[in-house]
Amino acid sequence: MSRRLRLTLVAVGALAVVLAALSVGLVMGGGGDPRADGGAVGRPPASSSGAESTAIPGVAPGGLVTYTAAEAGTAFLDGFVDPDGRVVRTDQGGDTVSEGQAYAMLVAVGVGDDKTFRAVWNWTAENLQRPDGLLSWRWNDGSVQDRSSASDADLDAARALVLAGTAFGDPSYTADGVRLGKAVLDLETVQTDAGRILAAGQWAMTEPYAYNPSYASPAASAVLAAASGDPRWAELDTGSRTVTATLLDQAPLPPDWAQVHADGRVDAMPGAQGRGQSVRYGYDAARTPIRFAESCDPADRALAAEMLAPLDRGGDAAELDLGGAPMAETESAVAAAGQAAAVAASGDVARAADELVDADHLPQLTPTYYGAAWAALGRFMLTDDVLGGCPPAPAAP
Fold this sequence. Notes:
- By secondary structure, this protein is mostly helical.
- The chain has a domain at 91-352 and 376-387: Glycosyltransferase, CATH 1.50.10.
- Helices cover 49% and strands 8% of the residues.
- It contains 14 helices and 8 strands.
- A 3-stranded antiparallel beta sheet has the order 1-2-3.
- Strand 4 and strand 5 (195-198) form a beta hairpin.
- Helix 3 packs across helix 14 (369-383) and helix 13 runs antiparallel to helix 14 (369-383).
- The protein is globular, with a radius of gyration of 20 Å.
- The two termini are 24 Å apart.
């Protein structure tokens, strides 16, 4: 747990005592990076038992709550999914992105909520699915604002559909997932000398290929390979592992963005196609250790464990340089989950459980959509096999 969060928790506890004694009303608001994580503005407080105290937005009466995976998942679904199945980024103007729809589908599988899953997938298929089968990445004000695809969302949604086919006994979900997975392979992967890689989207299929290391998901590839029998999923696993290992040979941490050349060369980049401010390990890259730690392949888990030392230097800071030095004071739930993943992959299950508490608490202190999603997904991917991976820190029975 980071020193800053420990101090914040102490302050919150002391404040609750003072408020209860004096019956003073207090209103606090959360801020931060527009893509920062945590829950979302307007997220209902988590339930809690204990002494009554003045409510603080995002913080349960009586203090911060430590969730199980199912509780974190329910908090995300309750806070961000409309009845029609649209996932609303309430902290970012109320828009919807394909990533969020895919996250909700995975979480709905995790908590066993067929009704929510069906609503989310139906909304996604009706509003975001393109004629080629991929998903448009952004919707707002009643229509698609950008029809470009985002390959992480497409891959996560395909994985969720296949898992839902089994979980909810509906073969149509499995068929939809296999079809979406085939579109990913056909339209968003490319062969390079490093192996088959997942380009960032169909828009990124020109060499050098825009590449986001955190989009690679060995567990998703394994789920889809088992359902489809397509050998390209195994090729994608090999290529993803090679590119990630190359990036970790170049620096202790992977960047948010990179580019891959046809000859297999890999370059860290300051944002997609070089349009960012600087090369960094930030809100995107923090997903990389989580995705590799949940893999059933020991080689993938070893890559996640390799990130532990620099992540210990940075703690829960939302943005680090590639050596692990903090680039901002803001902390994030996805960073906490990423650190927990590296710890779990290294074999320290008890400490990983402690690190995951940060991922629960930070969203309650600074609410945003992205963090609420990864507080839930981090717990599922690292502690439960319901999403088809091999959790490195299984929850106690």
